[in-house]
Amino acid sequence: MNAPPAATVTGSPLAMVARIVPIVAVAMLIGVWGRELPVPVEVVVVGLLAAAVLAAVHHAEVVAHRVGEPFGSLILAVAVTVIEVGLIITLMVSGGPATASLARDTVFAAVMITCNGIVGLSLLVAALRTRTARFNAEGTGAALTTVITLATLSLVLPTFTTSARGPEFSTPQLAFAAFASLILYALFVFVQNVRHRDYFLAPGARESRDGEEDDTHAASPSNRTAMISLVLLLAALAAVVGLAKVESGTIEHSVAAAGLPQSVVGVVIALLVLLPETLAAARNARRNRTQISLNLALGSAMASIGLTIPAIAVASIWLSGPLVLGLGATQIVLLALTAGVGILTVMPGRSTLLQAAVHLVLCAAYLFLAANP
């Protein structure tokens, strides 16, 4: 998740709004907790929920920029994962057995949206600007390989194992998948930020003595700014989880009233959590930083599996009901197609409008089939 810290400039309009939103969101949470809400207030709560997600990621980026790599990527990934896991667990607790597959649906949605939607959008924006989008095939290929492996271990294998009934892992299998996911994610972060950092820079990019690319970067925030952002980050995370709890029933009822399958709830969570990453990836692609866009997309997919699955595995100790992780046949086909197309896109180290369109069509196909299985 090597996003440039352009959005972390103190004093910018975004920074000022990001400082206000967590405070307003926490105040709103205190005011509406445990109450029946009229529709206008629910609309405001949903808007604040989305704004709090954006604010949380912004403050995580500020703290990450201050501490540097590799800890910066970990802070940002953990912040996003806390939001994702908090939303999943909140809805699973309130939804009962009907939400047994919510973790699977959310993680799979994140993989499909990042590997097809964000990747496709990034390649499209870059190709429209420079005709051919160029990136480092070594680093991008390593990231894609890790994502495919994590997705297969965590989401495909439960469909075919026989120790537990249905598309579920037995307890030892779930523990192994969670441990393997953590190990692979931690090793990738080490390789990306320490051992082979140059693999994840744009082709021909030079690094300065402090390890950053020669692109224009914002100055590192002060200790005071970083501490303020840390406090506001914690407040925003608490507000997101709390407001999600407030709105959990409304979200589920709205999906059911629209005649949509329960898996759409996972898509909504993934879209909400990935909104900041999508905006950042598109912004970097527009600035001809395709490599950073792909790092963001694939890094988000990796964190969604490598950190969310272990967290859900631990939470399953006290969550009642089954934990369904295995994908269905249609989902497996889409994942296999995504893996194949992704490999062919990455191998040359360059991409045109055609590859971008293929990824975007795959994302559209996933969203359509999620609503119309």
UniProtKB/TrEMBL annotation:
Keyword list, A-Z: Membrane, Transmembrane, Transmembrane helix
An MF annotation (GO) of this entry: potassium:proton antiporter activity
InterPro entries: Alkaline_pH_Ca-Antiporter, NaCa_Exmemb
Pfam families from the UniProt entry: Na_Ca_ex
Domain Sodium/calcium exchanger membrane region intervals: 44-192, 229-369
Listed transmembrane segments: 12-33, 39-59, 71-95, 107-128, 140-161, 173-191, 226-244, 264-282, 294-318, 324-346, 353-371
KW Transmembrane (keyword) present: yes
GO CC aspect terms: plasma membrane
Localization of this protein: Membrane
Origin superkingdom: Bacteria
Topology within the bilayer: Multi-pass membrane protein
Protein name: Ca2+:H+ antiporter
